[in-house]
Amino acid sequence: MSPLLPPNFNVEQLDSYQAFIPHAEFCYSPYRTACCQFSIDALTPMVIQSLGFTLPQTLKQAVKKRQAEYLASRWLVAKLLLPENKSFQLLNRADRSPIWPLGFSGSLSHHDHKAFVVLDASPALVGNDIERMLTEDKAKELQSMIMNDAEFDLLMTSGFSSAQATTLLFSLKETVYKAVYPEVQTLFGFEQVILTAINPINNIATVKLSRLARPNEYPEYWPINYCLTINEVMSWTVMKRL
């Protein structure tokens, strides 16, 4: 079975949950990270009940895909928070941002069959993202919304295809947004986070945050880790105060 977590992480634990989550990987250093595959078709009312999580009212009548994404990510979070927080269910505020337990900050992301979670002790800012690779046609449609000419040129000269560049930069900026939103509490566009450097060998990108996007007591330039495969992009960051 193909690895789920990027090679940056040393997998310390494997797990599964019936046919719904056939494979999950967990890492606990340098911060808590987990990733799982989930099967929408295997999500039945009996599985939902056995998981022990309560679906929010907004999801009780939702399509199975949304229910599966929610439950798989909550299962990962609950596993990562053991033993400090037994029987924990991650809930959301009205703006849909997660309510992490005291002493932890985190971020979660998912696509159609995979969930990805990163946790660290407060007062870190944590962001992550996982995206299915865009097609070339879709990438060309979205490029002007996501990047400026300088960012596009940087990614092209670094050896990325148009689809890879657009998917990767979207993921990097989504990761930053998730990390900073709990502090800045402000909606902002892609232009507020600018790619300034990228190292395809070490898989680290550097982005510059505008004054609008940057929380107080945090740096202007942020390193973002990423992992790019044929089918997807994963990115993540854990930032401490200056």
Brief description of this entry?
It contains 6 helices and 12 strands. The chain has 242 residues and is an alpha+beta fold.
Principal-axis shape: globular
Content of β-strand:
25-35%
Unreliable residue stretches: none
C-alpha termini separation? 41 Å
- Mean residue pLDDT: 95
How many helix segments? 6
Rg, please?
A: 18 Å
Largest sheet: 5 strands, antiparallel
Structural class: alpha+beta
| Spatial order of strands in the largest sheet | 1-2-3-7-6
Secondary-structure element order, N to C: EEEHHHEEEEEHHHEEEE
Give the helix proportion (percent range): 25-40%
How many extended strands? 12
Layout of helices and strands:
Elements: E1 13-17, E2 21-27, E3 32-37, H1 45-51, H2 57-60, H3 64-80, E4 91-92, E5 98-99, E6 104-110, E7 114-121, E8 125-132, H4 136-146, H5 149-157, H6 162-184, E9 193-199, E10 204-209, E11 221-228, E12 232-239
Helix pairs in contact: 4-6
